[in-house]
Recover the amino acids of this structure.
């Protein structure tokens, strides 16, 4: 159905139902009828304003694609979401038309449904206004507004005050395939129930039991669920999200996943001691570079890894490797039966960096699909459990990933690998670490990986606004407030420790838990009965009293992640002419492992960051000559900032045209753009790296997701690499793939982290990692 047909159908169904319910019914049915008529009229009003905007974007968004065969960018995604909302309204309107005369028709319920989608359409209209502003303010061909002030600051300010509960109540997951919406509702109900009991209990049993009982009221009252979801995402800190996302790390869930996943011969958790070693330089094997252990923030400590191999290979049962193994308190992870066949070492190795926003998860969460990959590819996989923020912010994770990569090169015989080919793979934060680890390897002159597979990588950690990042207003698992907290934690500008909870005695805890369980059970039962008997029950209020923020954000820590990165050269240069010292060991200290962690010789604070020195060829502008026809097309959609009302004295300029204002939330959040220089470092945001640092990268394959807030990161980074003639491919996970979610948003069928991994598990993974499979 094209755009004109969609809007024509919408107008038709709204006008017909508005005329029918304007008949003047009395009593409770009359109240519901008036609500339906009002909702239909407001939907028509929003649609009349949206129709030319949607048509305009449809004519220009192809200019921002990576290429004509990869239709993906944030503008497309926004239009897709609006169309999904319109189609849901049409579907709901037709249902009302077909059933409104039935004695079983619930007018109040359907009025609530239409009001919820009307609210969602109003907020989407506001997002499209901001997208039009981006077309006006951004440089030609750029998806990002290259400043944390201006439009980026305006979006953060608008996000903090705009009503978001409508996207997490009745409309939850409307932009996704129907098959995934029940799962999203389960996640949302579990999240708000978990959030209500967060910090309330000292025992895991209390949290689990109380969350189970309180979940009932959120299941039967979508408005209450949306309000509570809004409160949680606005006010709870990164420690809450770390705890919630790590639920998959619990012994029960991880054991269940392990039993249902592919059975492998080797699944060994390793703890590699922090020892200094030498690696030969790629350009001259007679010279070497010293690799020191990670030391940033928390000092030297063992680096944690996990070795997974479908087949037992030479070296994987050696005494040396077994001495590095760490116990996980579970079953024996190395399956060595009497008849176990030991295969020769594989010519290939896959090194994996997990996602989790730099703050959560380990290789345990990603173990099921890694086992399948090991079976499908026939290669061992080494997954790195890097230290997490906020306790270990940048550059600690990068240090450990680079150290693990170098350790694998040096100890390939222990991993069942011949040392021939190696590929890096990771999702989200792991995709960022794949790229930055390769950049670090190039800077030190050691061997580069043979390829990178990055699924929806976070390549720009600044607060720059982009069309896809506007989707954080409605993303069920990565709202902007959560994303900003994760990035602040990684940059070291967030609170490092969690606020302590007042301790109580065991007896008082039991009494309190019991009282809360009885109260929640009584409340849930009461709500359920009323929802059945009271057909005129009004929609719940869209907000509750917000919790006053009690935690002040710590100042940016003047640590190695900020002050000591501030060198004119981010890494010590490796001599290009190595013939003058044929057998000499280069004592080049890794800045990742030495200089960044040294407090004895601090670099003066006056030394600017690399990103602040205006690197010679960093540019988001790819079109050399602007096509006049393209400029004309864009100018027909783009709008300048609206003029304020005469005589008005507003603290901030008006962001929307006169006569329109989005719905505002009572759950106001303190969201400030933390302008930390750390996030502009190329090893933190590789999209900001100069061309000279990107030209040394191996072939990169990027997998993007349509409704992922980080979609524009993938598209722009692929364009950067293509612009400097680096081998890069961008794959857009198609909506026909039936996948399941774990973190980021996606298209009409979920294409989140495990979704993309499932997409990679099929035939595509064999082609993406073909260099590994060819010789294995």
């Amino acid at each position: 159905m094209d755009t004109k047909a969609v809007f024509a159908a919408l107008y038709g169904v709204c006008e017909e139902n508005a005329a029918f319910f304007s008949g003047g019914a009395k009593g409770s049915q009359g109240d519901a009828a008036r609500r339906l008529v009002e909702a239909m009229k407001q939907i028509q009003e929003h649609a009349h304003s949206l129709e030319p905007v949607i048509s305009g974007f449809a004519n220009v968004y192809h200019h921002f694609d990576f290429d004509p065969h990869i239709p993906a960018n944030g503008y497309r995604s926004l239009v897709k979401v609006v169309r999904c909302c319109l189609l849901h309204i049409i579907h709901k309107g037709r249902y009302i038309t077909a059933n409104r005369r039935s004695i079983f028709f619930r007018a109040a319920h359907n009025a609530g449904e239409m009001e919820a989608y009307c609210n969602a359409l109003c907020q989407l209209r506001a997002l499209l206004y901001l997208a039009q502003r981006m077309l006006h303010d951004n440089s030609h061909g750029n998806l990002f507004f290259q400043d944390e002030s201006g439009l980026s600051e305006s979006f953060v300010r608008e996000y903090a005050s705009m009503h978001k509960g409508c996207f997490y109540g009745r409309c939850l997951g409307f932009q996704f395939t129907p098959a995934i919406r029940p799962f999203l509702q389960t996640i949302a109900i579990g999240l708000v129930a978990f959030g209500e009991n967060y910090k309330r209990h000292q025992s895991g049993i209390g949290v689990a039991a109380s969350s189970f009982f309180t979940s009932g009221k959120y299941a039967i009252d979508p408005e209450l669920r949306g309000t509570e979801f809004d409160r949680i995402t606005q006010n709870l800190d990164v420690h809450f999200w770390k705890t919630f996302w790590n639920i998959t790390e619990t012994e029960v869930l991880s054991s269940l996943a392990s039993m249902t996943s592919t059975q492998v011969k080797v699944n060994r958790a390793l703890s590699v001691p922090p020892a200094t070693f030498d690696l030969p330089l790629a350009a001259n094997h007679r010279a070497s570079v010293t690799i020191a252990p990670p030391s940033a923030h928390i000092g030297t400590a063992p680096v944690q890894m996990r070795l997974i191999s479908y087949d037992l290979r030479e070296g994987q049962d050696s005494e040396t490797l077994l001495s590095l193994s760490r116990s996980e308190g579970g079953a024996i992870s190395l399956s060595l039966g009497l008849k176990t066949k030991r295969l020769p070492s594989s010519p290939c190795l896959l090194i994996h960096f997990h996602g989790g926003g730099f703050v959560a998860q380990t290789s345990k969460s990603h173990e099921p699909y890694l086992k399948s990959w090991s079976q499908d590819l026939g290669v061992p996989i080494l997954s790195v459990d890097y230290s997490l923020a906020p306790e270990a912010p940048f550059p600690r994770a990068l240090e450990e990933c680079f150290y693990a990569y170098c350790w694998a090169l040096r100890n390939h015989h222990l991993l069942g690998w011949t040392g021939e080919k190696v590929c890096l793979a990771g999702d989200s934060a792991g995709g960022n670490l794949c790229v930055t680890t390769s950049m670090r390897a190039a800077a030190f002159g050691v061997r580069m990986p043979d390829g990178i597979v990055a699924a929806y990588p976070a390549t720009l950690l600044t607060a720059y606004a982009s069309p896809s990042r506007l989707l954080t207003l409605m993303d069920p698992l990565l709202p902007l407030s959560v994303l900003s907290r994760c990035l602040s934690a990684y940059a070291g500008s967030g609170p490092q420790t969690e606020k302590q909870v007042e301790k109580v005695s065991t007896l008082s805890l039991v009494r309190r838990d019991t009282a809360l369980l009885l109260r929640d059970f009584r409340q849930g039962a009461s709500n359920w009965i009323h929802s059945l008997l009271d057909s005129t029950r009004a929609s719940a209020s869209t907000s509750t009293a917000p919790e006053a923020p009690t935690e002040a954000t710590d100042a940016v820590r003047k640590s190695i992640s900020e002050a000591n990165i501030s060198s004119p050269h981010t890494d010590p240069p490796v001599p290009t002419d190595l013939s003058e010292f044929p057998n000499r060991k280069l004592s080049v200290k890794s800045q990742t492992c030495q200089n960044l962690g040294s407090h004895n010789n601090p670099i003066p604070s006056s030394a600017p960051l690399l990103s602040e020195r205006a690197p010679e060829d960093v540019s988001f502008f790819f079109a050399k000559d602007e096509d006049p026809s393209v400029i004309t097309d864009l100018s027909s959609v783009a709008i300048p900032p609206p003029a304020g009302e005469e005589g008005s004295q507003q603290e901030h300029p008006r962001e929307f045209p006169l006569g329109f204002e989005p719905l505002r939330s009572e759950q106001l959040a303190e969201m400030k753009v933390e302008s930390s220089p750390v996030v502009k470092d190329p090893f933190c945001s590789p999209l900001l790296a100069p061309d000279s640092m990107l030209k040394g990268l191996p072939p990169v394959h990027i997998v993007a997701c349509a409704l992922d807030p980080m979609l524009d990161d993938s598209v722009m980074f692929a364009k950067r690499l293509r612009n400097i003639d680096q081998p890069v491919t961008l794959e857009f996970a198609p909506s026909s793939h039936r996948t399941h979610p774990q973190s980021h948003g996606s298209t009409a069928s979920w294409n989140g982290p495990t979704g993309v991994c499932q997409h990679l598990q099929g035939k595509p993974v064999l082609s993406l990692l073909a260099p590994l499979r060819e010789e294995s």
